[in-house]
Amino acid sequence: YDRLWDAPVISRGWHARNVKFWRSQGADVRGATGGGVSQRDLQFSKEAVADLAKAHCGEGGLFERALDLGAGIGRVTEAVLRRHCAHVDLVEFVQKHLKRAREMLGVQKGACTFSFHGSAVQKYEVMAGHYSFIWCQWLLMYLTDADALDLLKRLGPGLARGGILVVKENVSTPDKATYFDDMDGELWEEGDQGGPVSCVRTEMHYEDLFQRAGLAIKEQKLQRDPSGKTMDMMLYVLIPA
Q1: CA angle 19-20-22, nearest 5°?
Q2: Taking the complete model, does pTM exceed 0.70, yes or no?
């Protein structure tokens, strides 16, 4: 899979294109998700996280400390994580999005408290044994394999005893293989103007990254849109191997 990144038109300027792309997005749900998919996405995540909290923390129990990486405007923390976590650290590099999250969540909502970190995930220091729950959605697709692998290698040791890492991403099919999208979310092909900004990986590609990062898949759940209007997403529950 590493050879996918050999072409300079893909790898060169990848981070700069992502910074430009995300800074141009609005600080709202449409800017965060492209619109249309958020409600179905959140309903699936609510059910999945509720099941995980019950299994790991008991009925009504809370994950002690959670990390929401690439938190954006706080969409998932507000709708899902705060109901099952005592504290959430939100990490987001786009300041206007982090500002919106702070305005929406404050320092506490219900039984959950929050702290906000203006940082790229590549630079965020994950303290060893610190988190009982880590959430990572629609983030790895915007990272190169090298950056994704580096991040995953740091997240495993960041888990407390019994902690879990959840990765939720769009997945490609084996026949389509891993491919790249442009700034408009359309298929990028060599020769197109400008380089790609995101990578839609196959399940096998993700499994390879997890294995190389020293992580094991505890369970996985496929989110499928019966209408076929939105992409399949896979939710992975990962633990140190």
Answers
A1: 65
A2: yes
